[in-house]
């Protein structure tokens, strides 16, 4: 399979990961765009036979950290309160899903970045602890402690809704 | 079996991350500890909540601009080419003499292996693109070509005399072709290292070397998409 085809196959998951990191849909797709550009630019660094998804997650995570740092410098906030509340004319199920994404997304957006990325990789993307630790280039113990703190914070924020 | 089961361990148990022995230990502990059992349940419920919230994003159709970003990347990254050139102490001009003779033998040898007839012929001692390669060089634009095309044109540029040159890559052969009258003269060819075992066709060191040589021969910047289209419209003539 071509590199491009495999990359396209990963886009739905990368968009999901982006939303769990960046929350506002426009920011999330910007993040996807930046990630794709970085990946194509450094595609020689990817070793065929290794997992492209892990490699892409790492690139996206690094792109997100860079963007987050830049916007922090500009004094912008991580949380876009209005995002996720635009309920179009979609069906009931879609509206429900969007409201849920709104609440959960806002709760995610309140987490410190190091906890948010751990939660996103393990609980949203379904990576094993070991895989997530490799993507984030941190020891397992660091991953589990960030993960447990992030989850406890989410449970508190979401309360009974969780 | 006594002693605290720490929060990390309960979480790891909820996620199915524990080895069987540790999992048994947690199971025994939570059997007599409703609070710990409730924590495990909440961990699992949270995972389900996050999945319900974010999974619909993965089910949405991918927006077109993102697909386009994969299929039509920016034509060339000059900075990385220049960096590669510095590393290899690149050419100051075109390879001549022996290099071309070696390329000729290589090109003709590889020619027979490609579909659509030999992509390279010899005319008056010069190596000329023919067949599928000639066609690709005449018609394909780097910015819009089908990404599945067997022959790919990478960069179009003018050398210092104003002649249009294009770097290309077929599965077996890469190089630089420059317009001379109605033909594309191959100024440089290199066999591309190919491993049949891998399904990924990635840029290798040969491509980097070609790019570095192109950069060395280039006058100014590579042609952008619009300039490339104009050059094609006037039959790739030099200025």
UniProtKB/TrEMBL annotation, chain A:
It comes from Sphingomonas populi. Residues 103-154 form the RNA polymerase sigma factor 70 region 4 type domain. This is Sigma-70 family RNA polymerase sigma factor. InterPro entries: RNA_pol_sigma-70-like, RNA_pol_sigma-70_dom, RNA_pol_sigma70_r2, RNA_pol_sigma70_r4_t2, RNA_pol_sigma_r2, RNA_pol_sigma_r3/r4-like, WH-like_DNA-bd_sf. The keyword Metal-binding does not apply. GO terms for molecular function: DNA binding; sigma factor activity. Keywords: Sigma factor, Transcription, Transcription regulation. Residues 11-73 form the RNA polymerase sigma-70 region domain. GO terms for biological process: DNA-templated transcription initiation. The keyword Repressor does not apply. The lineage of its organism: Bacteria, Pseudomonadati, Pseudomonadota, Alphaproteobacteria, Sphingomonadales. Belongs to the sigma-70 factor family. ECF subfamily. It holds the Pfam family Sigma70_r2.
Automatic annotation (TrEMBL), chain B:
InterPro entries: Anti_sigma_zinc_sf (IPR041916). This is Anti-sigma factor. The lineage of its organism: Bacteria, Pseudomonadati, Pseudomonadota, Alphaproteobacteria, Sphingomonadales.
